[in-house]
Specification:
The complex is a heterotrimer of chains A (394), B (329) and C (265).
Chain A (H helix, E strand, L loop, with lengths): L6 H6 L11 H4 L7 H6 L6 H12 L8 H8 L6 H9 L6 H14 L5 H13 L20 E2 L7 E4 L2 H5 L4 H13 L4 E3 L9 H5 L3 H18 L3 E4 L2 H13 L7 E4 H10 L11 E5 L13 H9 L3 E4 L17 H4 L1 H17 L4 E4 L2 H14 L4 E4 H8 L1
Parallel strand pairs in A: 1-3, 2-3, 2-4, 4-5, 6-7, 6-8, 8-9
Helix pairs in contact in A: 4-7, 14-15, 17-18
Chain B lengths: L6 E5 L7 H17 L3 E7 L3 H7 L6 E6 L8 H15 L3 E5 L2 H13 L4 E5 L1 E4 L6 E7 L4 E7 L4 E5 L16 E4 L12 E7 L12 E5 L8 H12 L2 E4 L1 H5 L20 E5 L5 H7 L4 E6 L12 E4 L2 H15 L1
Helix pairs in contact in B: 3-4, 5-8
Chain C lengths: L4 E6 L2 E3 L8 E4 L4 E4 L4 E3 L1 H16 L2 E9 L4 H4 L1 H4 L4 E6 L8 H15 L4 E5 L10 H9 L3 E11 L2 E8 L2 E7 L3 E5 L11 H6 L6 E3 L1 H4 L9 E7 L8 E2 L5 H14 L4
Parallel strand pairs in C: 1-6, 1-8, 6-7, 7-13, 8-12, 9-12
Antiparallel strand pairs in C: 2-5, 3-4, 9-10, 10-11
The chains are: A alpha/beta (394), B alpha/beta (329), C alpha/beta (265).
Chain lengths: 394, 329, 265
């Protein structure tokens, strides 16, 4: 990986350190927004420090891949908060997200690999999912729902469940609910079942760009062969992969890519889905990084929540652009689980401060992480997906 | 004056002269003519006079025969040793082997014995007009690159990928000399013994041997689609292939897989139906002599390697294609 | 099976051969393939060879030593061999090992094998996925003057020798070789067993031996007998001739006629 192309950016960074705090104009206060800055403290663990490290590598001052260096580079969750703050507050226009992925890719190419990531890649190569679960079990979440198989039948809309939702049984109601809503709304829907593969987004974020491209090529081939016009997913990571990472890998599909919340919101506006029942509940909404800050989808999930009568939506101090990552992204959950858990707990504490009784989100990775954090904290607090709440209203 | 002279082809015998040998003799003839030297061939075995006599009609100037009961079936130890002796006697400039199970075993060992170098799996060979050395082209990195080697020690030894060279034709008017190469084989040099040979049932024409291959990809849409592929291949007297997805999906047996992790083929005609052209697949078939691609996506990668392309649904195209081919037969 | 035997497996580090074509940037100037976005891995056939060794170890206690050489080796990648069950990892690292041809590679590896001293079986993959040379294994057997069997799909180590099933185009043959012998292993043998996170982490700090050219007493001053003249990406100058027509019927007929004219059917 050639990091020379970032040379200009090294000098543009003024080390103002605004990359690690939430925009104080909007939230009226000084709150960290980069999880690894908040957890580890040192500048090397947030954007300006990582940029400086990249400079050191390019200038040949950093040559040895020490364990500490690896930890600094791989503890970036890829949440995009630094980019958001930096772009809005300074004239710096570098793509921090891409820079930190390229930094990881450099070490991947050199074989300086993180043990946990090696195991994940091995599992992915064997079973086509990042959890190393059996490939043949992938479509099991949809058993009994009678969804068309895109390998055999033509459909208008492909539903991509993603790795987490395909194997995390506790989260199956989310996807089962989503496809039931779509079917009932008359959508001509299909899925790849056991043949669905990982989108490749997670492995892209840990620097295995080639592996990601292979999965992208495969998925694009499948989508093209299907003749579908839309690709829908309930996973924010998959969504971002399709929307942002695939073009970066020169993989384009001539289909409309929608997150489930965008599509359902559209169907509610078209009155094809009608939330009729009251769901009296005080909730707060957590913007998944890949859906919110990185993809700019803030309104669709909120709009669905507003369409359900009885729901009272309370915003956290850090929300939308200023949202704090759940801590699970970028391969951090796999490699540094303590840090991930700490971040999730921070977020739960913030959510509770709103007075809400539940945290609602739209990404299975956030959900799994929050559920685990709440369990460890021993809190009486619920986690829902937007779709789960909507199902209660139908 | 170079003490190394002549192009030596190692003849493989199955029941008769193996097809790869005719391909080696064809390219060997060209190289020998370019260098203005003799084309030699060597055949090893037991009771192989008939083969040796027949070889003459395929163009070599001299056929060396090493006939010994100990050479009845292939043994690496014995073959390496007798070839080493033959090479010491003849000092050939170039030695050609096939990239076959025998060639893969024998060529590396002979090259180490003779303290020379070897290039395996060549797909193109020519003579550099200035240096008179052999330019050896082979795919590397899974077909993602092509390398051209030149070896400055003699003899220059290569193995050649099957079907990358056209076979030489039989010509009864050709004349050549059959020479018995007398050499004693001491049984003690043979350290390995074959306990048994097990034939595994193969149905139809083997992919590697087929002149025509019709392959299906994910675009076929299901196992039923392969019936049409089968029909077409049968009509053409070819074999059925597949890219990786149909094999993974169970639409086609994994033995049909063409590609980097499957079979590497170079038929005269390769018809790719509903195959997008992932690199994995291209590595296995891009050296085919004629490639026809049928795919719905006009931007599919497969069209980059295809000679003829059809953009459309194979289900609509194939019936007319099959019907017309039937009429032409 | 006999206990207490020593097996040496030679493993090459290569850029992940399963990467997409864009991951292999061909630099014709330096005549190198530059991997992009893919990690180094153990060459797949060498993984098969390691699996062959581990299967022998499953049956009877023996020592499996993994040997790898290169200019700069990725330790996390090669440590995987320890994670799956190899006993020792020896790395041969030296600047002079860069770009060595198979001949000199076999000489260097043989020298390391002699330095190890006792061995009953040497295993290699049938070829490496990068330069695809397929000769280091047989080369080592010639240098060490031990018998070799290529293309194994099964390897059994017995009291009195090695029993190998060798892949043939239409089946296989069963070959018996004495101890010590060298066997090159093919993919038909089966994939390398899987190492979990626990196993991978457990070996991250296990000591490994590193040797350089001078430790091995190999003279690598004159190694350019075979030269790589050119390295280039495959160019397909096949301007695809698209068959057109009013309808599928017409196109199908036109295609058949084209192939007929070209005499390929």
């Amino acid at each position: 990986m050639n990091l020379d192309k970032y040379e200009k950016d090294f000098n543009h960074c003024l080390h103002c350190h605004l990359c690690y705090v939430a925009n104080w104009h909007t939230i009226d206060g000084w709150m960290p927004i980069c999880p690894s800055a908040a957890y580890f403290g040192f500048e090397s663990f947030y954007a300006s420090g990582r940029i400086e490290i990249t400079r050191g590598i390019v200038e040949g001052k950093i040559t040895e891949a020490t364990d500490r260096l690896m930890k600094i580079i791989y503890s970036c969750t890829g949440c995009g908060a630094c980019r958001e703050q930096c772009h809005s507050l300074s004239g710096f226009k570098a793509d921090h997200l891409q820079l930190f992925v390229d930094l990881k890719a450099k070490y991947v190419e050199e074989g300086e690999l993180i043990a946990e990531h090696m195991a994940m890649i091995d599992g992915l190569k064997r079973e086509d999912n990042v959890l190393g679960e059996p490939k043949e079990d992938r479509g099991k979440w949809a058993e009994g729902l009678d969804i068309k198989d895109i390998n055999k039948e033509k459909v208008d809309v492909i539903f991509h469940a993603g790795c987490r939702l395909s194997y995390d049984k506790e989260l199956w109601p989310i996807v089962r609910g989503a496809v039931t809503l779509l079917k009932d709304a008359g959508v001509d829907l299909g899925m790849a079942g056991a043949e669905e593969s990982c989108c490749g987004g997670r492995v892209y974020e840990i620097g295995y760009l080639g592996e990601a491209k292979k999965y992208a090529e495969d998925l694009v081939g499948r989508v093209k062969a299907s003749g579908a016009t839309k690709l829908i997913t309930s996973c924010s990571d998959c969504y971002d992969a399709f929307k942002r990472i695939y073009p970066a890998l020169e993989q384009d599909m001539d289909v409309e890519i929608l997150h489930i919340t965008e599509y359902i919101n559209r169907l509610i506006r078209e009155e094809k889905i009608k939330p009729v029942k009251e769901v009296p509940m005080k909730i707060t909404y957590h913007d998944p990084c890949h859906l919110g800050r990185i993809s700019g989808v803030y309104n669709a999930p909120r709009s669905i929540l507003h369409s359900i009568s009885g729901i009272e939506l309370l915003e956290m101090r850090r929300s939308k652009e200023n949202s704090l990552c759940c801590g699970a992204g970028g391969g951090v959950m796999e490699a540094y689980s303590d840090f991930t858990m700490w971040t999730a707990k921070e977020r739960i504490i913030e959510a509770k401060e709103t007075g809400a009784k539940a945290i609602v989100t739209a990404c299975p990775w956030c959900e799994r992480n929050f559920k685990d954090a709440i369990k460890e904290m021993g809190e009486d607090f619920e986690v829902y997906d937007v779709i789960e709440l909507l199902m209660q209203a139908i | 004056m170079d003490e190394y002279r002549g192009v030596l082809v190692f003849c493989e015998v199955e029941e008769n002269i193996a097809p790869i040998t005719l391909e080696l003799l064809q390219v060997g003839r060209k190289l020998a003519d370019d260098l203005g030297v003799e084309l030699l061939t060597v055949v090893l075995g037991s009771d192989i006079k008939r083969i040796a006599d027949e070889l003459v009609y395929f163009g070599p100037d001299k056929v060396y025969v090493i006939d010994d009961p100990l050479l009845k079936s292939y043994n690496g130890d014995a073959c390496t040793t007798v070839l080493e002796r033959l090479c010491e006697a003849l000092n050939p400039d170039i030695i050609l082997f096939g990239q076959t199970s025998v060639g893969r075993d024998l060529a590396p060992r002979l090259s180490f014995r003779l303290k020379t170098r070897l290039t395996t799996d060549c797909i193109d060979l020519s003579i550099d007009q200035d240096t008179k050395l052999l330019l050896q082209t082979k795919p590397v990195y899974g077909g993602n690159a092509l390398a051209v080697y030149v070896c400055e020690v003699k003899p220059q030894i290569v193995t050649v990928r099957s079907k990358t060279m056209s076979p030489i034709a039989y010509d009864e008017n050709r004349k050549g000399e059959v020479i018995e190469f007398d050499t004693e084989i001491d049984e003690l040099i043979i350290r390995t013994t074959v306990i048994e040979k097990v034939k595994e049932e193969a149905t139809g024409i083997k992919l590697e041997d087929a002149d025509i291959i019709v392959s299906g990809g994910r675009g076929i849409g299901g196992p039923d689609g392969f019936e049409q592929i089968e029909e077409l291949s049968k009509l053409l007297g070819g074999a059925v292939g597949a890219s990786r997805p149909p094999c993974d999906l169970g639409w086609a047996p994994s033995t049909h897989q063409v590609g980097l992790t499957g079979k590497i083929v170079t038929p005269n005609l390769y018809i790719a139906v509903g195959i997008s052209g992932a690199s994995q697949h291209l590595a296995g078939m891009s050296e085919s002599k004629r490639i026809v691609a049928i795919n719905k996506d006009s931007k599919a990668n497969i069209f980059k390697v295809a000679h003829y392309g059809v953009v459309g649904d194979y289900k609509d195209i194939l019936p007319a294609f099959i019907k017309k081919l039937g009429e032409l037969k | 099976m006999k206990e207490g035997l020593n097996i040496i497996v030679c493993v090459k580090q290569v850029p992940d051969p399963e990467g997409p074509p864009s991951a292999f940037e061909v630099d014709s100037e330096s005549k190198k393939v530059i991997p992009k976005g893919i990690p180094p891995v153990m060459s797949p056939f060498d993984e098969n060879a390691l699996e062959a060794a581990l299967r022998i170890k499953d049956e009877a206690a023996c020592k499996v030593t993994v040997l790898s050489m290169g200019k700069r080796l990725a330790k996390p990648v090669l440590r995987k061999s320890l994670a799956v069950g190899a006993d020792e990892l020896i790395l041969l690292e030296d600047n002079s090992f860069e770009g060595l041809d198979p001949y000199w590679t076999a000489i260097t590896l043989s020298s390391a094998i002699k330095r190890i001293g006792t061995y009953d079986l040497v295993l290699t993959g049938r070829q490496a996925s990068d330069w695809n040379a397929a000769q280091v294994g047989p080369g080592i057997s010639e240098i060490l003057k031990i018998p070799s069997v290529t293309l194994a799909r099964k390897v059994e180590l017995r009291e009195d020798g090695v029993i190998v099933e060798r892949v043939l185009p239409n089946g296989y043959e069963v070959i018996k070789a004495p101890i010590p012998s060298l066997v090159t292993v093919s993919n038909e043998l089966g994939d390398l067993r899987y190492a979990g996170i626990k196993e991978i982490k457990a070996v991250q700090n296990k000591p490994i031996t590193t040797l350089c050219a001078s430790d091995l007493k190999v003279d690598l001053s004159q190694t350019d007998q075979i030269k790589l003249l050119k390295l280039y990406p495959p160019v397909w100058d096949r301007k695809c001739n698209f068959i057109e027509g009013q309808d599928a019927q017409e196109i199908g007929v036109a295609l058949a006629l084209k192939l007929r004219v070209d005499k390929v059917v």
